[in-house]
Write a structure and sequence with these properties.
- The complex is a heterotrimer of chains A (258), B (310) and C (354).
- Chain A contains nine helices and eleven strands.
- Chain A is α/β, with parallel strands linked by helices.
- Chain A has a domain of 169 residues: P-loop containing nucleotide triphosphate hydrolases (Rossmann fold), CATH 3.40.50.
- By secondary structure, chain B is an all-alpha fold.
- Chain B is built from 13 helices and no strands.
- In chain B, helix 3 runs antiparallel to helix 4.
- Chain B is globular, with a radius of gyration of 21 Å.
- Chain B starts with 9 loop residues before the first helix and ends in a 13-residue tail after the last helix.
- In chain C, strand 4 and strand 5 form a beta hairpin.
- Chain C has a three-stranded antiparallel sheet with strand order 3-5-4. In chain C, strands 1-2 form a two-stranded antiparallel ribbon.
- By secondary structure, chain C is mainly alpha-helical.
- The chains are: A alpha/beta (258), B mainly alpha (310), C mainly alpha (354).
- Chains in contact: A-B, A-C, B-C.
- Chains A and B meet through strand 7 and helix 3 of A and helix 7, helix 8 and helix 11 of B.
Chain lengths: 258, 310, 354
């Protein structure tokens, strides 16, 4: 059992348990009957070709897009009823960075879920947000207008916002996309730290070359889940050939053949 | 309002208070529409409201025997018609291949065309329905016709809208900035979307008597676009847009009162446009002049990435 | 004879508007027509004040230039990068319209303009205003100006169809092929602006907007090919003009409102009846969903051995009623076998045909 703000959460349950998850936008399902189970402390990458439903898997598990079917359990709970168990880092490019707000304000949005309606973030929330910014080495930019940030800094802001949520399971959509090398390193070490603390991370990842370096688990997805397991078990040539229809992106080194 | 050259007659006080309030409220409410890139939605709402206004007028005649042009009767009609037009447009653009622009445009044509059709028909009735000539004023606005009761209605509806805006501020803010994230927090996106729609409609409806259905969009978009240039904080932007809107409203009321025959609506709109033009030129950082200067100073250095990906 | 000319003017106006509106609707800029329909007002008033001769074709050109000015102003504001194009349109056209209303109210243009004409035009009087050349009566002036607009639009569409199509659906490809998409775009909007001005007098702003948006939007629900959309939009526009005209006569009101309303009713009817309308699309979507649901239950039973139906229901996260309805469909389609006594489900013994 772990104690979380008056909640007792059993630790014998899988951190994330997804069954039968199906989403359709038009005629063809974007995600079909996906089953996925991750234990606590998993650090998992979702990989697959464009249009494979990677972001859709995250969004459907979070209830951000409507699903045709599927049951999602986070530590045995319905995440719709235990919102503070999950945190979401959307794709950086999904928002308008010219929005009139500051770095600190965006990070404070991570506290909105726990505050509930009508209550404003106060001193306590501010301190939490600053602490998260500090962890992302962004504390001195707290007052900065978000339009002035670089890509890497934008991503750090989003991660700080997720840290403030102090969740058990983190859903991240391409956190490494378009960031500088320094930021890439600090995101990778943040993920490692979170996993070490028993948090669970499920992240869409594009760069196949870095999967073995940054992740312990992999979910191979092309509308259906083709394989789930440790990187060692599932992330090898024959699986990837099947996943990408024989057109594995060129940047994949001859890695971990098993 | 106590400038020496203004004759402080009570009608003018009512009109000026009304247009000022309308300007402030719609300026503040317009910020969210502006940031969601839905400025033209306000245009569809205001045009569509005409149908509601005329139907409410006819119904009040049919039910009570005497037709009413008071805002008490017409505002509910306008609220319903404006909301209905938006919801229909939404459902057309999500359920067919038509894009949002086309769906909005069609609803504008149907509701405004229908409203105009009905308006002309009402005006042809014999015996004439008393008060029908005043309906025409909703097209271009007739601030001078504002009564004390109308003013209270503007205060009440505008006040409600501002209170709701204040109470749901952080939810509306996160929903506007990052809708997917706000859904992941468990915020009900449909409720927030509807709330925003109703606020927008309320902001439009209180203004159509003053500036008319055709020009109402300017009171939503122009002050917000001007305010955005001066600040990078949402709350400051909303306040500033309210101030710009109020100043345009007050200025329009006073100018058109001092110069006979000047219609209030267009004067209000042109004042707001002037504020926008000045803001676009003069604002620090974002203004055209400031940025040209910054570019000159940095001529040899590659410019920093301005704005963001969207 | 007057009625013939009224109808002729309405028909040509409707065609010109629908043809030019088709590309606006497809290019996600339908509301540009709303902007143009308002922005040309000061152009008309100023051109009239300057030229003084309302029969001069220069009047049309001058007014259309104001529409083009609006387009350029919107683009210039958008290019500053601090205001997006929707908002710049929302700032510019009400401002220009306000200038127009102020000028009209100042009586600059004499009694030529009346507030009503701005919105509804004056189709009833249009046939009385004749075009005379060398003492010969050539018919109403309005007829010739909207015909000129129709010719211009049709000519542009015929000559530059390929470019317009590319510009509409893939401006980036157009640029890479060496077209200047922005130039063609501005030229096209100039033609649209001319159409708006020419239609303005007879149709007024509301009818221009309605005829530019509603018929093409209705056509898009019936057919796919751009050429077919153009043709059907033309037909819808003609029908709206004719029906609206009759309705206006019958009820003794200006025909603009009835015509706009007829175009709207045609759109709503298409929404209900057309293959890509709400009803048919909804039905198609439901039948796809019904098939998906059966396939999903079958997919959960892939192992072949009978499974407890409650746990299958739990995995799919469906409420009981929905699940039971899907199972009933699957059983009647002989895809599943349901054993109510044991509470189990298993796949029917046949090659799974999903």
């Amino acid at each position: 059992m772990i104690q979380r703000g008056g909640l007792e959460i059993p630790t014998d349950q899988p951190a994330l348990d997804v069954e039968g998850l199906t989403v359709t936008y038009g005629q063809e399902p974007a995600l079909w009957n996906a089953d996925l189970r991750l234990s606590r402390g998993s650090l998992a990458a979702i990989v697959g070709p464009n249009g494979a439903g990677k972001s859709t898997l995250l969004k459907a598990a979070l209830g951000v897009v409507p699903r045709v079917s599927g049951r999602v359990r986070v530590l045995g709970e319905d995440p719709a009823r235990r919102r503070r168990l999950v945190a979401y880092v959307p794709q950086r490019t999904s928002v308008d960075w010219d929005f009139p707000t500051s770095v600190l304000d965006v990070v404070l949005m991570g506290t909105y879920g726990q505050l509930g309606w009508f209550r404003r973030p106060g001193r306590k929330e501010r301190a939490l947000a600053l602490q998260a910014l500090e962890q992302m080495e962004m504390a001195d930019l707290a007052g900065r207008q978000i339009a002035e940030l670089s890509g890497g800094q934008q991503q750090r802001v989003f991660l700080a916002r997720a840290l403030v949520q102090d969740a058990e399971v983190y859903f991240m959509d391409e956190p490494f996309a378009g960031v500088d090398a320094v930021t890439e390193q600090s995101i990778a070490s943040l993920m490692g730290l979170l996993a070490h603390q028993g948090k669970t991370i499920l992240s869409v990842h594009h760069d196949l070359a870095t999967v073995p370096r940054y992740f312990e688990h992999a979910v191979l997805l092309n509308r259906v889940v083709q394989a789930v397991g440790t990187v060692k078990e599932v992330f090898h040539r024959s699986n990837l050939d099947r996943l990408y229809g024989g057109r594995v992106p060129a940047n994949v080194p001859e890695f971990a053949s098993s | 309002m106590s400038a020496p050259w203004v004759d402080l007659d009570p009608t003018l006080v009512v009109v000026a208070a009304g247009t000022t309030t309308v300007g402030a409220v719609s300026g503040a409410l317009g910020c969210f529409a502006y940031l969601r890139r839905q400025g033209l939605v306000g245009d569809v709402v205001s045009h569509s409201a005409l149908l509601g206004v005329v139907v409410a007028f006819v119904l009040s005649h049919a039910i009570t025997g005497s037709a009413s042009r008071s805002l008490m009767v017409l505002v509910p009609g306008a609220l319903i018609a404006g909301t209905a037009a938006l919801m229909l447009a939404r459902s057309v653009s999500t359920r067919t291949r038509l894009n949002e622009d086309a769906s909005l445009g069609v609803m504008l044509s149907i509701f405004f065309g229908g409203g105009l059709f009905l308006l002309r028909w009402v005006q042809r009735q014999s015996p004439p329905i008393p008060g029908h000539t005043g309906l025409e004023d909703y097209l271009f606005g007739m601030a001078a016709a504002m009564t004390r009761a109308d003013l209270w209605m503007i205060f009440a509806l505008g006040g409600c809208a501002v209170v709701v805006l204040f109470l749901a501020w952080k939810e509306l803010k996160v929903f506007t900035f990052d809708p997917d994230f706000s859904r992941s927090l468990g915020l009900p996106s449909r409720v927030l979307d509807t709330l925003m729609m109703v606020l927008l409609v309320a902001g439009v409806v209180i203004g159509i008597q003053t500036v008319g259905v055709i020009l109402m969009i300017a009171l939503l978009v122009t002050p917000a676009a001007a305010a955005r240039q001066w600040t990078s904080r949402l709350s400051t932007m909303a306040l500033l847009a309210a101030v710009f809107g109020a100043a345009s409203g007050a200025g329009g009321a006073l100018l058109s009162a001092s110069e006979s025959g000047l219609p209030t609506g267009p004067v209000v709109v042109l004042l707001a446009t002037a504020i926008f033009a000045l803001s676009l030129l003069l604002a620090p950082q974002r203004g055209v002049i400031a940025r040209a200067r910054a570019r000159r100073a940095l001529r040899d250095v590659p410019p920093p990435a301005a704005g963001g990906a969207s | 004879m007057i009625e013939f000319w009224t109808l002729a003017i309405a028909a040509v106006t409707a065609l010109a508007c629908a043809l030019s509106g088709t590309f606006l609707v497809l290019k996600r800029e339908a509301l540009v027509s709303e902007g143009l329909a308002h922005a040309v007002l000061p152009g008309i008033v100023i051109a009239y004040a300057l030229i003084g001769d309302r029969t001069s074709p220069l009047l049309l050109v001058g007014a259309a230039a104001m529409g083009l000015l609006m387009i350029l102003a919107v683009q210039a504001i958008r290019r500053t990068g601090v205001v997006d194009s929707t908002a710049s349109l929302g700032v510019v056209f009400p401002a220009l319209f306000s200038v127009g209303v102020l000028l009209t109210s100042m009586d600059l243009a004499g009694t030529y303009f009346h507030a009503d004409c701005i919105i509804e035009g004056n189709l009833a009087l249009a046939p009385l205003d004749r075009l005379e050349l060398g003492g010969r009566d050539l018919g109403p002036r309005a007829f010739w100006s909207v015909s000129a607009a129709l010719l211009l639009v049709a000519g542009f569409v015929l000559l530059l169809f390929k470019e317009l199509k590319l510009l509409t659906f893939d401006p980036e490809l157009a640029a890479s092929l060496g077209f200047r998409p922005s130039r063609i775009h501005v030229a096209w909007l100039a033609v649209v602006s001319f159409t708006v001005v020419a239609s303005f007098e007879a149709a007024g702003s509301i009818l221009v907007v309605a005829l530019m948006i509603a018929p093409p939007a209705a056509a898009v629900l019936w057919v796919d090919d751009v050429r077919h959309v153009l043709g059907l939009a033309g037909v819808f526009a003609l029908v709206s003009a004719a029906v609206g005209h009759e309705l206006g006569m019958a009820l003794d009101v200006a025909p603009a409102g009835p015509m706009a309303t007829s175009a709207g009713v045609l759109f709503l009817a298409s929404l209900a009846l057309a293959p890509r309308g709400i009803v048919m699309r909804g039905r198609a979507r439901r039948s796809v969903l019904a098939r998906l649901e059966v396939d999903l239950v079958a997919a959960r039973l892939r192992s072949g051995s009978p499974r407890d139906s409650e746990s299958v229901r739990g995995e799919l996260g469906w409420p009981r009623r929905r699940f039971e309805a899907v199972v009933a469909r699957a059983v009647s389609g002989a895809a599943l076998i349901h054993d109510p006594a044991a509470g189990t489900l298993h796949l029917a013994a046949r090659p799974a045909g999903s």
